[in-house]
Amino acid sequence: MRPSSKLALLLTLCTWTSHVVFSQASSDEQLARYAQAGQRALAAGHYAEAQSNFEQLARLQPAVAEVHATLAVIYFKQRSYEQAVREVRTAQKLKPGLPRLDSLLGLSLSELGEFKDALPYLEKGFKQSTEVEVRRMCGLQLLRAYSDLRRDPDAVETALALNKLYPDDPEVLYHTGRVYGNYAYVVMEKLHDSAPNSIWMLQAQGEANESAKNYDAAIIAFNNVLSLDPRRPRIHYRLGRIYRARFSTSQKAEDRDAARREFQAELEIDPGNGNAMYEVATMAAEDNQLDEAQKGFEAAIARYPDFEQALVGLGGVYLANQAGAQAVAPLERAVQLDANDDVAWYRLAQAERAAGNRDAAEKALSTFRTVHAGARAAQSPKPAEDVTPQVLDAAAQP
């Protein structure tokens, strides 16, 4: 857990202390001195000094729940979790209705590895707390508790909720990613143990090898799937994608030919597979078979009107056929669907110029340059596409 997160929780939980301590200690100079010094130390982040002062207050006023609650937070901050638990329970006995202590108790018990005891408090904090940081910390500890207790479905459910609440939090992304990965491994192990020679296991092996770019093994696995079920949907398509990927490194014509055959085989099984239509059309466009490419892209768009890459492909075919004005509409729709597609913006600039729309062409070209520069500067690679993406023409000038 991040230090800043603990500090946020500390400051949140400590808001109850000063009023009660001062109201009860106003007639006692020594108590007031300890209270004031403890509060100053707490605000400055000097936790050892704050601990010393509040321990003195606890000895002098052992029946004040807020003092024990504040000590619990200080101990938690200093990773003295057993003492934090003790102080929370003391405060709860003195004043059962004192807010926020259940969350702190759950967090402390979880840090001690007492996950079963921590669960009800963590679940309450994650589901009911209105304080963003308290809820976040309880959620992260819930992941830890559920995972240790082998309650994997609950861990996944909590991970999904955390991702929805904190979609850009790197700590949340890290821990939820581990939960998803672990759960996927557990499920695949169960599949292997219960049905090692099943069609589902073979398909999982093919997908795993494809992800690892172990293309030869992936091809064998998917062909074994087809030997058991020759008309199984999407398997020929997966094989086509693998051959396309292998061709990108091998540059062997037989890989490219095999890819085309597999996409066409997929369409024989599932004529409505838009991705297979798109791939066949893309390969036709690469081979300058523009009529075939146009028919393929149009068929894919007719079935899936918001198929962004097919719109970009169709715009490219129109441009190649010197029908630039006709390319404007599909390319305008493409950039509406994905404003970060530099290929779409470049082709739109070409199409607007061909249509005589000079201002629109300059605007599209300017946007292309911005988007293209941003794509080149990005530190992380783009996620794998489900289809072969359209690429910039060789003559494209950023």
Which terms would index this structure?
398 residues, mainly alpha, Serine Threonine Protein Phosphatase 5, Tetratricopeptide repeat
* Biggest beta-sheet profile: none
Mean pLDDT: 87
Low-pLDDT stretches are: 1-12, 14-27, 379-384
Structural class call reads mainly alpha
Question: Which shape, going by the Cα principal axes?
Answer: elongated
Number of domains: 3
Describe this structure in words.
By secondary structure, this protein is mainly α. It has three domains: 3-149, Serine Threonine Protein Phosphatase 5, Tetratricopeptide repeat, CATH 1.25.40; 195-271, Serine Threonine Protein Phosphatase 5, Tetratricopeptide repeat; 305-398, Serine Threonine Protein Phosphatase 5, Tetratricopeptide repeat, CATH 1.25.40. The chain is built from 21 helices and no strands. It has helices spanning 3-13, 17-25, 29-44, 47-60, 65-77, 81-94, 101-111, 115-128, 132-148, 152-165, 170-194, 199-211, 215-228, 235-250, 253-269, 274-286, 290-303, 308-320, 324-337, 342-354, 358-377. It is elongated. It starts with a helix and ends in a 21-residue tail after the last helix.
